[in-house]
Design a protein that fits this description.
Largest sheet: 3 strands, antiparallel
Mean pLDDT: 92
Strand content: 25-35%
Strand order of the largest sheet: 1-5-2
Order of helices and strands: HEHHHEEEE
Structural class: alpha+beta
Shape: globular
Number of strands: 5
Number of helices: 4
Length: 131
């Protein structure tokens, strides 16, 4: 019985996810761990507040996250007909993209590997209930 309840809630979650506006940025040349630090600051915030936070952040990841957030807000307004003042950041995460592998040459003919990481940034918005 618990399995059916779990499956039913997952289906409901998937249906709701399709209705929510979102935006993705793929293959951003930045480590996902550095992007995640920035995204932790805006998770759960109202969309307008999240924009203000990202505009005043010193981290370089904030610029990319701001682009994705503004895109998600535009998607909500133009595609879903939602009001920007009623939106909040429901989900935001950075997944790992492909890793570019490079070589740093060392002494005595040896070499070290340099990993240049990329990330996929996803921001999902939702409307405030009763707003």
């Amino acid at each position: 019985m618990a399995t059916r309840i779990r499956l039913k809630s997952q289906q409901r979650k998937e249906e709701n996810k399709k209705a929510r506006p979102y935006a993705k940025a793929k293959y951003i040349r930045m480590s996902p761990s550095k992007v995640a630090i920035v995204l932790d600051k805006i998770r759960g915030q109202k969309a307008e507040m999240a924009v203000a936070i990202l505009e005043n952040m010193a981290e370089s990841a904030a610029v990319e996250c701001l682009k994705v957030l503004k895109s998600a807000i535009a998607n909500a307004e133009n595609n879903k007909g939602m009001n920007a003042s009623n939106l909040f950041v429901a989900e935001c995460y950075a997944g790992a993209g492909p890793v570019l592998k490079r070589i740093a040459y060392r002494a005595k003919g040896r070499a070290d590997r340099i990993l240049k990481r990329t990330s996929h940034i996803t921001i999902v918005l939702d409307e405030v209930v009763g707003g």
